[in-house]
C-alpha cells in the first residue's frame, strides 16, 4: 500500500469535513442575524440559541483546521520497526480477519477507502492505539472495552 496516497486521502477527508463545518457556520450565522429571529419578548430565545449554534459551528471549523494542520505534519517514515504516528498497520484477529489501521495524531474514527480496502484511522488515545504504541511485527496486542477483550497480532507495519 502507498502511505503517501493514504495520507493524501486522509487529508482530503479532513478538508471535506472542514468545508462542511464552514458551510454550517455560515448557515448558523445567517440564522442568528436574520431579522426573523429578533426576539419578540424576553422569553423569545431563538436569536440567542442561533448565536450559540453559530459559535459552536465556528469552533468546530477551527478544530477541523487544526486537524488538517496536524495531518499535514505527519512524517511517514521508511523504516517501520515499531508502531508510531504515520504507521500503516495490519493486524490479524483471532478469527484470521485482517484489519488495517493508519495511526494519526487526530481524527480517530475516520475510515479511508483505499484500493477496495477499509483503513481505520486511530490515535494513541484510543484503547487499541494505546495497546499498539511501540509494538513490533509479531507482537500480540490486547485491549479491553467494557467487559469485552480483543486480541490481535501485528502482521505488518509500513
Layout of secondary structure:
Elements: H1 3-33, H2 46-72, E1 88-93, E2 98-103, E3 111-114, E4 117-122, H3 127-132, E5 140-145, E6 148-157
Parallel strand pairs: 2-4
Antiparallel strand pairs: 1-2, 1-6, 3-4, 5-6
Characterise the protein shown here.
- By secondary structure, this protein is of the alpha+beta class.
- It folds into two domains: 70 residues; 70 residues, Transcription elongation factor, GreA/GreB, C-terminal domain (Chitinase A, domain 3, Roll).
- Helices cover 41% and strands 24% of the residues.
- It has three helices and six strands; from the N terminus they run ααββββαββ.
- Strands 3-4-2-1-6-5 form a six-stranded mixed beta sheet.
- A hairpin with a 2-residue loop joins strand 3 and strand 4.
- Helix 1 runs antiparallel to helix 2.
- The longest helix has 31 residues.
- The chain is elongated, with a radius of gyration of 21 Å.
- It comes from Vibrio sinensis.
- Keywords: Elongation factor, Protein biosynthesis.
- Pfam families: GreA_GreB (PF01272).
Amino acid at each position: 500500500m502507498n502511505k503517501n496516497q493514504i495520507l493524501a486521502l486522509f487529508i482530503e477527508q479532513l478538508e471535506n469535513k472542514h468545508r462542511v463545518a464552514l458551510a454550517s457556520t455560515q448557515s448558523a450565522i445567517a440564522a442568528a442575524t436574520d431579522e426573523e429571529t429578533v426576539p419578540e419578548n424576553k422569553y423569545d430565545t431563538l436569536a440567542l440559541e442561533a448565536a450559540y449554534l453559530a459559535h459552536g459551528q465556528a469552533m468546530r471549523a477551527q478544530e477541523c483546521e487544526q486537524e488538517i494542520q496536524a495531518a499535514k505534519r505527519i512524517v511517514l517514515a521508511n523504516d517501520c520497526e515499531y508502531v508510531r504516528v504515520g504507521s500503516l498497520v495490519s493486524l490479524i484477529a483471532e478469527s484470521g480477519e485482517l484489519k488495517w489501521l493508519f495511526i494519526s495524531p487526530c481524527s480517530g474514527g475516520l475510515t479511508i477507502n483505499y484500493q477496495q480496502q477499509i483503513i481505520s484511522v486511530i490515535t494513541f488515545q484510543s484503547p487499541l492505539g494505546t495497546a499498539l504504541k511501540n509494538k513490533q511485527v509479531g507482537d500480540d496486542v490486547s485491549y479491553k472495552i467494557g467487559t469485552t477483550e480483543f486480541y490481535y497480532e501485528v502482521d505488518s507495519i509500513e
